[in-house]
Amino acid sequence: MSSRLFAITFDAHQPERLARFWSGLLGLERADDADDGIALLSGNDAGYRLGFRPSPARKTAQNRLHFDLTSSSTEDQRETVARALELGAHHADIGQGPDTPHVVLADPEDNEFCVLEPGNKFLAGCGVLGALACDGSQAVGYFWSEALGWPLVWDQDEETAVQSPDGGTKITWGGPPLLPDPGKDLHLELAPDGDQQAEVERLLSLGAKRLDHAPGGDGAVPLADLDGNEFRVLTHR
Known about the structure:
By secondary structure, this protein is α+β, with helices and mostly antiparallel strands. The protein contains four helices and 15 strands. Strands 5-6-7-4-8-11-10-9 form an eight-stranded mixed β-sheet, covered by helices on one side. It has a seven-stranded mixed β-sheet with strand order 2-3-1-12-15-14-13. The two termini are 14 Å apart.
């Protein structure tokens, strides 16, 4: 059994508004078969979607997961920042210094993201959605490598990264210490290749934990990874 990454999904107070922001920023088209909430086709070699699910959760701290957007030139970086601000983003302070070459922004619901300077060799060829950068342990990087069947492309000094064999967005983990749970964040959604319950059992055997709340109306089973981040296993599709 295995799963594929079906979506990276935002908790959203206003899913329609947030979807319009990311669609406008990245030029993404809407998927017409979203089961719950709204989804955009990422157009990324890693094959996932961007999802926006309604959530009443209140954001209490910096997100553990955020996107790093790549730039082809300094002008491209400036244009991306200007477009994001025009669409409703704002500058965010997460402790970066004044000489930091990347720009830290937050979308209209305060989800942080970075617009990287050109020349990032680690994300070369990954596309505009270069990385989903996660705060997390080395062990959780190993877990997600096994869960998705994506090979480790970085494993050094407790920092890890995985990437689909098809390329596209890398998922990275920065090692300890772990940020507090922000309450409102991004989440991974997995589509099993076969029986949903068999895949849930496989993920539990890798170290995932069951959550107390019941499956959603779409039949998705909520679990938590080794660092306590919630993710969902969808029904087979």
